Amino acid sequence: MSNRPCILIAGAAGQVGRELRRSLADAGEIICHDCDTVDLAEPDQVRAMVRSAAPQIILNAAAYTAVDRAESEPEAAIAVNSTAPRVLAEEARRCNALFVHYSTDYVFDGSKQGPWIETDKPNPLNVYGASKLAGEEAIQQVGGRYLIFRTSWVYGPHGRNYLLTMLRLARERDELRIVDDQFGAPTSSIELADATRTIVDDVLAGKFGPTENWAGLYHMTCSGSTSWCGFASAIFARADSLLHAKVPAVRPISSSGYITRAKRPLNSVLSNDKLYARFGAQLAPWEAALDVVISRLAEEAPEERQVAEL
């Protein structure tokens, strides 16, 4: 009988899920599910997914992430971002599995001057943030062997994200007007997955002692911060080979000049001090992480990159 743990990844086709599959490929038997195989809005399907796999580790990389659309679809956001995590937490506790879940900086209202810490009071400005906060609270109420990682501005070489959107728009337009008064830490799916792998390995090895020593909520982002405008400019400065030297002019604007259905926080910067103090984990500076993602994209075949941008 194999001693390799069974690892269940929900949202395995998404940008974080794909990198978790890569990073944990040799860590155990990987069972992948996404929206094509399980409807996370249906609690019975979520329970059946876990009970069929009987995993030792559950990684929930699935989420309803359409921030603006959530304003008109609150029930859908709550079902995937709150109810499904609660069911996963209950099933994880039932089978004593380690449960890892990802949350968001959007649980905060952006009013703080410095980086947000885990004990700061959440006050989401939009339905998406409220649904993710409800998911956090549900998991904490269930308890057990869980880790909640709040992260921010997630992007990567695959999926739907800001980086790939900017690269597409840059090929289509000569000028882009981008918000320059919202600040956060761009965090690559590669960094998230690799940090998760390290922490999961150490937790399972008993490095941090009993559950009460390590279970809980932690912030996990790349270090440093920038604005959306600064992030776009950094992308274009590194992406000559992807853009064929066509770099658009970037015009900074305020949030008031770019109206969206859902309100965004002005300050989304999260402190990672608790993560480092407990696990010794430290993600790369956001600029260095961006270099890695751009290099990954440049190495891919053109047809693979085209699929990634869809």
Describe this protein with a few key phrases.
Rossmann fold, 310 residues, 6-stranded parallel β-sheet, single chain, 16% strand, disordered C terminus, two-stranded parallel ribbon, alpha/beta
What is the strand tally? 12
Cα-based radius of gyration, to the nearest Å: 19 Å
Number of domains: 1
**Would you tell me which CATH topology applies?**
Rossmann fold
User: What CATH architecture do you see?
Assistant: 3-Layer(aba) Sandwich
CATH homologous superfamily, by name? NAD(P)-binding Rossmann-like Domain
Using the coordinates above, name the CATH class.
Alpha Beta
Spell out the helices and strands N to C: EHEHEHEHEEHEEEHHEEHHEHHH
Average the pLDDT over all residues and give the rounded result: 93
The poorly predicted ranges are: 303-310
Largest sheet: spatial strand order? 2-1-3-4-5-10
How far the N terminus sits from the C terminus, by CA atoms, comes to 42 Å
Structural class of the secondary elements? Answer: alpha/beta
The dominant shape is: globular
Helix content: 40-55%
Largest beta-sheet characterization: 6 strands, parallel
- Please report which band the strand proportion falls in: under 5%, 5-15%, 15-25%, 25-35%, 35-45% or over 45%: 15-25%
List the total number of helices.
12
